[in-house]
Write a structure and sequence with these properties.
The protein has about 350 residues and is mainly beta. The chain has 2 domains: about 15-105, Immunoglobulin-like (Sandwich), CATH 2.60.40.1120; about 110-320, Sandwich (Immunoglobulin-like), CATH 2.60.40. Helix content is about 5%, strand content about 40%. The strands form 6 sheets. An 8-stranded mixed sheet has the order 15-14-18-11-10-20-23-22, with no helix packed on it. A hairpin with a 2-residue loop joins β3 and β4 (about 50-55). It is elongated, with a radius of gyration of 24 Å. The protein starts with a helix and ends in a 62-residue tail after the last strand. About 35% of the residues are buried.
Amino acid sequence: MRTLLRVVAAFGVATVPLFASIDGTVVNSTTGKPQPGVSITLVKPGQGGMRTLGTTVTDASGHFLFDKDEPGGGPQLLQATYKGVNYNKLMTPNIPTSNVELDVFESTKSPAVAQIAQQMLLFEPSSSQTAVSETVLIQNSSNTTYTNGELGSLRFFLPPGADGQVRVSAQGPQGMPLPQAAQKTQEAGIFKVDFPIKPGQTEFDINYVIPTGTPLAFQGRVVNVKGMPAGPLRLIAPSGVTIAGKDIQNVGTEPKTQATIYTVTAAGSFSVDITGIGSLRNGGSDAATDDSESPQVTEGRPQIYKHLGWLIGLAFSVLAVGLIALYRSSPVRSPYGN
């Protein structure tokens, strides 16, 4: 009889969904030691947004414990806040929930720990307006997070034709694209974005539209955060579009999309004439559409490219310097959803 009861009890336990615990350690990857006193929140993404399942603080040994997670599958997110910077770890159903390690870093206000690895301006003119997409990749090879509200983590120039309307998103290492506010600086046309640059690669995407001209006389500026090393600025012209000017140099054509790549040779302001109609959405001028009916863009949530895809692979053998790395793997769609 007791044996039968044991079998029934075991069967009952096996068929009842259990609430698993989540435990682990917050490690300060700058010092290499466990970090006590870090606030951690367990959240679950859903159709209604992020839902908080619990909050705790690491003990003296950097350990944390959530007694129960939420059954039913789906990802959960651990969010740690350390010295004003948020660090996340995505917990998918196939990841063990025991002995989880979550990394945080010390912070620095020195922009010298990061550098601009790639900076590109893509022009996609239609018959009514020109969509401009600027992508900036910042590499932080140190073991500290750069954050400086006064200088910002990125600075960019917004031409007068955009009427101050711009969409900005930022994506940290292993993170998701998040909308960011473009803050005006004391310099006319120069905006900054305050987003922590964690160790690894951070991507910024800046999107706006300007009126189309025949040709379009585009006035730009090469700007960056003072003290942060920067590389060259590339201009990207889809097939069917030509960029001309004394401040740029044609360095080749990307084989897959047939986009032409230019390097800005000016150190500060530069001026170019843009002619033609074209888009990288379908790889050529036939993809260009009339955006006259599209809504005005306001500062706020960016329209993220569904396929982060245009390839910026440049045969840099023209300049005997090597190859520019392929950056995107498939054609993009318009940042304005058309």
